[in-house]
Amino acid sequence: MPNPWDVGSARALARLGFPALATTSAGFAWSIGQSDQQVSLEHVLAHLTAMTAAVDIPFNADFEGGYAIEPEGVAANVSRAVATGIAGLSIEDSTGNAANPLFERALAIERIRAARRAIDQSGSGVLLTGRSEGFISGRPDLTETIARLTAYAEAGADCLYAPGIKSLDDIAAVIKAVAPKPVNVLVHAPFATVAQIADLGARRISVGGALARTAWTGFLDAAQEIASSGTFSSFGKARPGTEMNGMFSVT
C-alpha cells in the first residue's frame, strides 16, 4: 500500500497495479511547500477528497493525530474525514512535543475509542488503524509499544501500526501480540523485502514519505547540478516525455 502525495503520483501507482494506496502527511506537506505536521485540517480534507476521486482503488488516510488533542475533537474531525470517500484512516499517539512525545496512554486510548465511535456512527465502514509512534519519536520501547497497540486494538482499532520498527524479530513480536488483528509495517529504508515481511504475518506494508523523498532527491540533485556546475547530466536519467504522457493518457 504505497503512499502517493498528489493526484499524478496516485494515478501512476494505481496503473502499476497496487490494490490500495495511502496518503502521506509528509509528502503532501512538501508538495505545497510546508513541513510535515504543519498542514491545516482544511487543507488535508481537501487533499483527501481529491485523492479518493482520482483513483478507483481504496485510499487510507494518514490522518496524523486527528488534528485535535481531546477525544471529542478527534471524533468530530474523523467524522469529516470519512465523508471524503476514504476507505481507512489512522490515528497516532504522538504529541509533537519533544519533551513528552507521546500522549499519556489513557488519553491515547480514549482518542482511539472516539475515532471508533465516529466511524461507527457514520455507517461508512472505514477501517481504523491505531498507530503508536514511540520508535519514531524518541521512545523506542517495544514493551510499551506493544502495550499501547494491544490497548488500541481493544479500544476498536481494526489494524495496528508502529512505524519505525526495523527489527524483524520486533515486527514478529508485534504481530503475535495483537493477533488476530492485522498489522501494518512501515518500510522507509531497505531493511527487508515484501516477501520477508509477509512471511512474518504482516497484512499491510506502507512506505510513508519514502517515495516522495526519492522523487525530491532526483529533483534536487538535478537542480543542484545546474546551479553549481551549469551542467545537465542528471536529465539523462529521466523518463521520456512520451512515456509520461502515455501513463496519464485517457483510454
Outline the fold blueprint:
Elements: H1 7-15, E1 21-22, H2 25-31, H3 41-54, E2 59-62, H4 71-82, E3 88-92, H5 105-122, E4 127-131, H6 142-154, E5 159-161, H7 168-178, E6 183-186, H8 194-200, E7 204-206, H9 210-229, H10 241-248
Parallel strand pairs: 1-2, 2-3, 3-4, 4-5, 5-6, 6-7
Helix pairs in contact: 4-5, 6-7
In short:
By secondary structure, the protein is an alpha/beta fold.
Architecture per CATH nomenclature, i.e. the level-2 architecture: Alpha-Beta Barrel
Number of domain modules? 1
Order of H and E elements:
HEHHEHEHEHEHEHEHH
Biggest beta-sheet profile: 7 strands, parallel
Structural class: alpha/beta
Under the CATH scheme, which class?
Alpha Beta
Distance between the termini: 25 Å
The dominant shape is globular
What is the radius of gyration computed over CA atoms, rounded to a whole number of angstroms?
19 Å
Strand content: 5-15%
- pLDDT averaged over residues: 97
Number of strands: 7
* Widest beta sheet: strand line-up: 1-2-3-4-5-6-7
The CATH H-level superfamily is Phosphoenolpyruvate-binding domains
Low-confidence stretches: none
User: How helical, in percent, are the residues?
Assistant: 40-55%
User: Count of helical segments?
Assistant: 10
In the CATH scheme, what's the topology name? TIM Barrel
